[in-house]
Design goal:
This protein is α/β, with parallel strands linked by helices. The protein contains 8 helices and 9 strands. It is globular and about 75 Å long.
Length: 247
């Protein structure tokens, strides 16, 4: 397909036009887990098989999920700045009690997308002492080890919600203004799935007005655009972001 080059994107690159131009095309191999950059419907119609690389990023994505969660739950940005500013040197006591932090133990952790990565996150969250529940966007996923909830019940009841789903017809725009309004004040949303699952404008608004926290590794357009509303939240301490490194 023209000059070969490496492209990481959420856009559909292999579309109808490309597939029609490749008259002998029988297999598309995606060197990633997500396949949202291929028109899967048209590929199926053409009898072209599409394969991804399953399992290679499970440990990395799981680790990044907890990196973002612990950073925010533990208020680590605040404590790091407190120490490095020299404030601890001036303290009258051995510790600092002005900013409380939370624990995962005893919290309710909701998982959107209980696939290979979601199940690994569930195992680690359980090891921390969290109660794990999940939502199946396709409706086809059932796991006897964890309670399955509808989306509204999960968003309303959970202290932490993490997204590990692909971007498809079931998940595109799944989390918007209404769904974010269901979350408790102080609850945490972690998205290490795909950016298009969460409405970023609605998320920025919820962070500033509803008091929720968010750990974000993916956005709808990558690289992130200058006008992305997440870059302009007023309460930046409630948001942690990484540049799509969880793979």
């Amino acid at each position: 397909i023209g000059d070969a080059k490496i492209v990481l994107t959420n856009k559909v690159l292999i579309d109808k036009e490309v597939m029609d131009a490749c008259t002998n095309l029988g297999l598309i191999c995606v060197t990633a887990t997500g396949m949202n950059n291929v028109d899967l419907v048209y590929a199926h119609e053409k009898g072209i098989r599409v394969k991804n690389v399953a399992g290679y990023s499970t440990a990395s994505v799981t680790q990044t999920t907890f990196t973002l969660a612990l950073y925010l739950i533990g208020q680590m940005a605040y404590y790091d700045a407190y120490v490095k500013s020299g404030s601890w040197v001036k303290s009258d006591i051995f510790t600092h009690i002005e900013r409380p932090f939370g624990e995962i133990k005893g919290k309710k952790w909701g998982i959107i997308g209980l696939g290979t990565i979601g199940k690994e996150v569930a195992k680690v969250a359980s090891a921390f002492g969290a109660q794990v529940v999940y939502f199946s966007a396709s409706g086809a996923n059932n796991d006897p080890h964890y309670e399955r909830l509808e989306l509204e019940a999960l968003m309303r009841g959970c202290d932490i919600v993490s997204i590990h789903a692909p971007l498809n017809e079931h998940t595109k725009g799944l989390i918007g203004e209404k769904e974010l309004s269901w979350m408790k004040k102080g609850a945490l949303l972690v998205n290490v799935g795909r950016g298009g699952i969460v409405d970023e404008k609605a998320l920025a608004y919820a962070i500033d007005t509803h008091g929720i926290y968010a750990g974000i590794d993916v956005v709808g357009i990558e690289p992130m655009e200058e006008g992305n509303p997440l870059l302009h939240v007023k309460h930046a301490h409630r948001l942690a972001m990484s540049p799509h490194i969880a793979w």
